[in-house]
Please model this.
Amino acid sequence: DIQMTQSPSTLSASVGDRVTITCRASQSVGRWLAWYQQKPGKAPKLLIYDASTLQNGVPSRFSGSGSETQFTLTISGLQPDDFATYYCQHYHTYPWTFGQGTRVDIK
Amino acid sequence: QVQLVQSGAAVKKPGASVKVSCKASGYSFSSYDIHWVRQAPGQRLEWMGKIHAGTSNTKYSQNFQGRLAFTRDTSATTVYMELTSLRSEDAAVYYCARSPRTLDGFDVWGQGTMVTVSS
Model:
């Protein structure tokens, strides 16, 4: 199975900050990678797919980049609604796997 | 609107089975894969497998070693997930989710179904 590792596990930031989360795959997943936002008690929400394509309706302050084994999610100008946990997920080969999550909380 | 609505919470004893439903609406049911993902308390999301709602073709994670089955009822636009021989480690929130393409992220999610396993 392909292992997905995110860093950091927790990130403290302020409104307006630029935030970057990294996701590393144990082997190449091409660009078959998605990013999700999850809030407590809620289902995840798709933010980015195919490594860098913004899902319809997602604010443009979210962006994704990378390929093969190294990916990043950037939030440019953190908003109060963005405090949540973020997960990466590959869909290159079965089984699809997720990172352990990065919690973004208020500094 | 496009939505997936899951059945309610379940409490099961170890060794029992649970069947969770996921009713789709607002889109062409038979054209998409429905995946199942679970999340144990404080844990990462775990992909369980998928079923194509039109062909009924399935793919399962090996982590469930034959305990897992997906079915669908096209007339009811509903997909079902059944997990047997429940263990305490199966206690989790179970989600169904849609993928628009064969290789894709999950663009629509159900609200989640909490399964508790306790004697």
